[in-house]
Amino acid sequence: MKKKIPMRKCILTNQMYPKKDLIRIVVNKENEVFADATGKVNGRGSYVVKNLDAVQDARNKKKLESMLDFSTEHLDPVYDEIIRLIYREDIPKR
Question: Where is the YlxR domain (predicted)?
Fold first, then answer.
């Protein structure tokens, strides 16, 4: 029997991807927003694809700001963290 792959929609591209190909963005009860590398932090979660071009395009067009209703100064560190997580994943495992 084949195991079902959980799918989620990326808020940047509006396309469905396997959950493991996405990074979760969380807004918690204290109204803090951050990238959740574990995917398990409490709060309202949205997903972005692990694609540098899509993230850079979103940063230039301020997509997360409009989606999550936060200012740019709140989300600049989030964009940086997403990019860091994408690069960290690209490093070959030994």
Answer: 8-83
The DSSP secondary structure of 48-94, one letter per residue, reads EES-HHHHHHHHHHTHHHHHHT--HHHHHHHHHHHHHHHHHHHSPP-
Rounded-to-integer distance, Cα 15 and Cα 76, Å = 23
Residue 2 lies in a domain: no
Domain encompassing residue 75: 7-90
The pLDDT profile of the chain, 94 residues, written as one tens digit per residue, is: 788 999 999 999 999 999 999 999 999 999 999 999 888 999 999 999 999 999 999 999 999 988 888 887 889 999 999 999 999 876 554 4
Q: What is the CATH number of the domain that holds 22?
A: 3.30.1230.10
Give SS3 for 19: helix
Q: Kindly state the tokens that stand for 44.
A: 């309202």
**Tokens describing residue 90:** 């690209």
The pTM (predicted TM-score) of the whole model is 0.86
